[in-house]
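dude i think i finally got it to work??
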Amino acid sequence: MSKRNHVEAVWTGGHAFRGGRPNGPQIDIDGDAVKGPGPVDTLLLALASCTSYDIVDILAKRRTPAEALAIEVVGDRADSSPAKLTRIQLTYRMVGATIEREHAERAIELAVNKYCSVKESLDPAIVVEWSLELNN
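look at this
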């Protein structure tokens, strides 16, 4: 049997929705970015957290754990409607006393291009690029 995700979104007024798994944690998503991030921002956050989940695990398995990790995501969108994403730039800001650059880069490469289900679910025409700032 294949894996299945099940979520529900409930309109809360304006362009806002509250959603998540039934009987699970909920988040606010707001097209006007008042009550929460907008839908595209939420997608970019999903990409950042999905890739980072794997990065943290890969580095921990190498016994070179991250002490801190922040991800900046910039998504370029088409000028026409729908204003779909055309390019995504992920900047990983990582701190870890024992992390070597080549191992961090390999972890990011694997996460972005092999393991992240969110990235693999995106239109392949979207250019996804990344960079690393290590121990800055």
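Residues 77 and 83 are 5 Å apart (CA to CA).
im so relieved honestly
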